[in-house]
């Protein structure tokens, strides 16, 4: 049982491995605030949909950060560590 599903993982592959392990041990997954339970087929569907969106959000955030760093570098801004020239 977790508070929200994205507190457990945002990676669909990791979650699939966890669910497989849970099944082997006879354990179901439940998110307190999201009314989702892996014991039912509808619950599994909802978990997978939510995890797909969480993974998408994580990847888009990473792309935005990389784009911002590239734009800053193109402008000549220092992006890593301490700049000894300042």
Can you walk me through this structure?
- A two-stranded antiparallel sheet has the order 1-2.
- Strand 1 (30-31) and strand 2 (36-37) form a beta hairpin.
- Helix content is 56%, strand content 5%.
- The termini are far apart.
- It has helices at 12-25, 41-74; strands at residues 30-31, 36-37.
- The chain has one domain (5-74).
- It has 86 residues and is mainly α.
- The mean pLDDT is 78.
- The chain is built from 2 helices and 2 strands, in the order H-E-E-H.
Oligomer: single chain
Number of helices: 2
| Largest sheet, strands/sense/barrel | 2 strands, antiparallel
Mean pLDDT: 78
Uncertain stretches of 5 or more adjacent residues: none
Could you say which overall geometry the principal axes of the C-alpha atoms support?
A: elongated
Elements, N to C (H/E): HEEH
Question: Distance between termini?
Answer: 50 Å
| Sheet with most strands: strand arrangement | 1-2
DSSP helix fraction: 55-70%
Tally of extended strands? 2
Number of domains: 1
Strand content: under 5%
Structural classification: mainly alpha
From the alpha-carbon coordinates, what is the Rg to the nearest angstrom? 19 Å
List the helices and strands and how they pair.
Elements: H1 12-25, E1 30-31, E2 36-37, H2 41-74
Antiparallel strand pairs: 1-2
Short overview:
It contains 2 helices and 2 strands. With 86 residues, the chain is mostly helical. The chain has one domain.
Which key terms come to mind for this protein?
two-stranded antiparallel sheet; 86 residues; 2 strands; 56% helix
